[in-house]
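dumping this here before i forget
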Amino acid sequence: MLTYFNTIVCLILITEASVNAQLLEGLYCGKENCYDVLEVTRESTKHEIAKNYRKLARQYHPDLHRTLEAKKTAEERFKVIATAYEILKDEEARADYDYMLDNPDEYYAHYYRYYRRRVAPKVDVRLVLIVTISIISAIQYYSGWQRYDSAIKYFMTVPKYRNKALEIARDDGLLVEDKKFKKNKKELKEETEQIIRKVIEDKMDIKGAYAKPSVTDILWIQLIILPYTVCKYIYWYVSWFWKHTILKQPYNEEEKFYIIRKYMKMNEHQFKSQDDYKLEEFLKQELWIRENFDEWFKLEEEKAKKQLAESNKYKQYRRYIKNHGIGRMTFDDS
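structure:
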């Protein structure tokens, strides 16, 4: 009989321990059961949970208590009730909580699921991505036009391009003054500047990073046409391998420039900004052949070193290093 009684007591203790193990400190309602806090059961509907929450919230609202101690007690209870309602009113949070009650041994999993939901952003990630890509695209397009406008203004100040633009404007009859309407010097100057700018924009092909921006350069369009770009690259790579590796066909001019650009480690914009006479020299010297390029590159390095050695500023720098050694350099002329 005593053994039977001890068994019953052990079972009761194990059951209590198992119930307490389901409730973890720092998660959800802590050591209290959220359903018990709101005086509902796991089978209760959303309507029943909300109804009990409103009833308990009115009962434990701090403003309804007069003494300081009562207010403090009510405020603490009100926070627990509000926490329980936040958990049970949301279907996903309630499912996580029920999972914790049903699987008390998965301690680390419960902490991970709880804090992942707490820390996770409330805004839809897809919306964040759309807004971010849109902002980057707008900045890209605006910056491109800013660079292009700066390039045009610069060319308008260079005598070589300015005089050429004026010559083209005269040949096209754009600078013929209208005898009927007399204009003052300021109006004439503004009109001339506009004509020069228009001629430079229409007649001059600005290459490189300062070229006229295109819609296809922005991130949104690049993402939209990404499948086409990938297919195009695969087709190009297969064609290149077939033509030049299998069939041993010679390179055309565009392919030669591509190889030279890769050897020079330049992107497409940088390479296109090279002067036309330089590009012709690259072809004449057959720089798409690796041996020729290595020899040309070595000569260019030696030429650059020679120019640097003959530079007055570099001579002053070497003289300073010789006299003072490598150390802190100041720009105090006093």
